[in-house]
Specification:
single chain, 77% helix, globular
Length: 359
Amino acid sequence: MTGTVLAPAAAAPGGNGTADLVRGVRRERTRRTRRAVALLALALLAALAVRVLLGRYTVTVPDFFAILAGEQIPGASFIVLQEKLPRAVLGALAGAALGCSGALFRRVLRNPLASPDILGITYGAAAGAVAGTAVWGLRGTAVSWTALAGAVLAAALIASASVRLRTGGIVGERFLLAGIGVAALAQALTAALLVQLSLNSAQDAARWTAGSLNAASWDRITVLGACLVLAVPAALAVHRALEPAELGPELAAALGARPARSRALALGLGVVLAAAATAATGPLAFVALMSTPVATALTRGRTSIVACALVGAVVVVVADAVGSDLLAQVQLPAGVVTGAVGAPVMLWLLVRQRRGAAA
């Protein structure tokens, strides 16, 4: 009788100790994530300051705040408000959108190479933009809508090729293969359309397909900002809802999660974010691919979609500053700089994945 009474009492401290340990681990992970997010936010502010204040035309801090307050400084006001600041803000928004998109794709497909720039979404947007210029003669912000349509069409082709007919679920390996195929098709279509353009139009289209912030404007910033305001909260919610799915479909179902619906919604949001960013700036190579592993390393293993967004924003703003102002006698689109940095990162991810599979 005594043993029967004492057994639960003896087990209780151990149970409380386990619960306290779990809570302690969670608090530590949360603290690490918050520190990483704070550091990334400071890094983004620093990158924006460098992009706006330094470069081929420097602006002092007092002059910058005076311009923001409405004071007209000959030369400086135009350069800050019509060139430097729009490029910096648009680059940060586009990078954040691509970072969020890459985090969603990677969580759903569970592959380090799963990102919209590898899977053909951004290439579809580029093909749509060039088609709008070559076929319908569109210019300016109108091209963004055909780019958006191209990205959505590419996503629809990939999804139709990767859906399991019996269950309606998406097969991750098939999704990756279909995405690579659609990317190749979109690149071929873009090349075929470029040769049909006039010399001036082909130069403009080629600059856009390289990923450039030259066409940054407050109209584009408004559209992309509105998209982020609507899509990012939903992305945060669905990214969090997919956490139980990483434990396996059976356990996720036991916890009340609906992984199939959440996966489809996450991929849809990822496509919208990547398409909106690409429609505004052109395809910025490997930004979505780099953001998640860098953010995960900074948070020490926990994937935070806010950290991924901040990494993407920092990468694009720094790439634009390097390509536009910090290279002597050379101006490169931001997409060329991100591609040069992202290619080694992609090779590193491939080697890392191969070692993990061998282990």
